Each structure stands twice: as structure tokens, then as C-alpha cells.
Amino acid sequence: MKLLRRMLLINWHYMVHELIEFAPVTFLTGKNAAGKSTILDALQLVILGDTSGHYFNKAANDNAKRTLRGYLRGEVAEEDDRIITLREGQFSSYIVLEFSEERGRNPVCFGVVFDCMPDATYEWRFFSLADTLPDFHFIRDGVPLDIKGLRTWGQQRKSRFEMYESNKRYQEVFLARMGNLRDKFFRLFRKAVPFQPIMDIAGFISEFVCDVNKDLDIADMRENIRHYRRMEEELRVVKARIQALEEMEKTFQSRAAAEQKIQLYEYLLDRAQLAQREQDLANLQQRLQACEQEAAQVEARLAEQTEARERVQARRDDLLEERAKSDVYQRKQQ
What is the pTM of this model? Predict the structure, then answer.
């Protein structure tokens, strides 16, 4: 499948030289007159290979009056029955789209070049290049190549470059190189860009989906669509419930993690208190042991003192008895 990668715009409405990058899914957003339709119209011109311009600005307004000449000249306003343009004289304009397969394989460019004359007339040529967009963007010495200059440059690329003399031939090559698309691709593309509701659903299905030429009964299909929408609503409710359950699970996991942390902190606190008490007990035991040793020493000293006292008392008694028996004491008493 070919994917749109880049778009080159040179002298197209407000844009003098712009290179736009595209992703697999790209959204164009902006205020009114920001240039969204300008880009879409350039895209349509190259893809459809149609220079009539009847589809211009259909994505924004069904009653649009934009013209190809207005895009090329850069018409911006009307004053005193005179149209004000951004570009005058002779110049060339380019719109080039670069496509490639996934991962950038097999690149190919499709584009159109316009030679605008001073008398406001113009001519064009569609072309293709079996390569990526050239780095010089078809500009030499600050001036875009005209049709003749582009043809001369393309001839150097031999079979990789081709310029088409008619829109029809370009459209055939475009469909072939984009995957052998059928002509109805252009009709389908025209329906897709304006973003208009499809009123004739049966006709749309028979023309672009089922490829049949008879009337279709789409009652069952409508019922299937309604059933599908109900299923979508139920799916939305289920997804909301799943999301709520996931949030509850996250909350529960957070709570469980917090409880686990609390238990860990309580364990660490109890363990610290136990270690402190064990240390206090060891200190008390050491003090008790020291006190017991001190008490033993005191008891030993007390026993020694008691024994010494008893010896002194015995000595005293002996002396008293000896004194009492002494003649000197007896005479003294007498």
C-alpha cells in the first residue's frame, strides 16, 4: 500500500515554497482561512489529475468560487472591481506528492507543473518520478523550472521520469502505479473529501462496496448498524467499568503496599526496642555482677573486722583479768 509522505507546494495561493510532512494519520486543523482547503485542493488536483477545479473548496463550502487561476496567481482580495493577486508576470507553480510503501520502500512522486503567462493564461503538464522528491525541489537559481526545463531535467533520469501530454494518460498511470486501482477510485475520492453525508446508502454500497447493479435491501444492514451501535455503547460502559476496576486495583495495591510498609516499620521499631532492652538488661547484669563482687568484698572485709574485733575484745578481757589480779590495781582500789 502506498502512503502519502510529503507534499511540495510552490507558488500555490499564499504558499511560495512549502514542504509538508505527512504521518500515516494526519489531521489538518486551524481557523477559517488558515489554508486547510488550499492544501486539500492541491492534494485533489494531483490525485484526481483534474484541472477543471470544480471541486475546489468543497471540503469547506459547497458554494465556493475558487478557481485554478486564483490559486496560481494568489488572489487575495477584490478592490474597485480589481482583483488583488500575490503574483504577476510569468512564473511556474508546482504541486508534487511523494508516496512510498512502508519503511520508505519503492518511493514515487506524482506532480503537476504550471507555466503562468503575463496575460493570465497558463499551461500545465502532469509528471511522475520513480524516486523520492529531489533535494533541489525543482528550483534552479531561486527560480522554479518551467515545463521545458523540467522536461530537460527529466530526460536525464531516463525511464524514472515521465511527463504526460494529457490528463487522461496521467490518470491511467496513477491508478496503475498506486496498486492497479479502478476508475471508480476517483469518484469515491470526490465523495470522501467534501465530508458530505451519504444520503443514498444503497446506491453507495452497490457502486463502491458490493459492485452490483441491482437494488439492495439494506433493512438488515441498518439493524446491524443499530446493533453495532448498541454494542459500542455496551463496550463503552464495559471499558468504563474496567477502568474503574483498574483504578480500584491500583488503590488496593497502594493500600496493601502501605500496610506492608507499616508492618515493616512496626517490626523494625519493635526490633529496635527489643535490642535496646536487651542492651539495658546486659548493662544491668554487668552492674549486678559488679555489685555482687563489691558485696563479697565488703562481706570479706566485714568478716575480717569482726574477727579483729573479737581478738581485741579477747585481748581486752585478758588485760582486765590480768589487771584485776595485779597487786598494784588491788592496792589502788583499796
Answer: 0.61
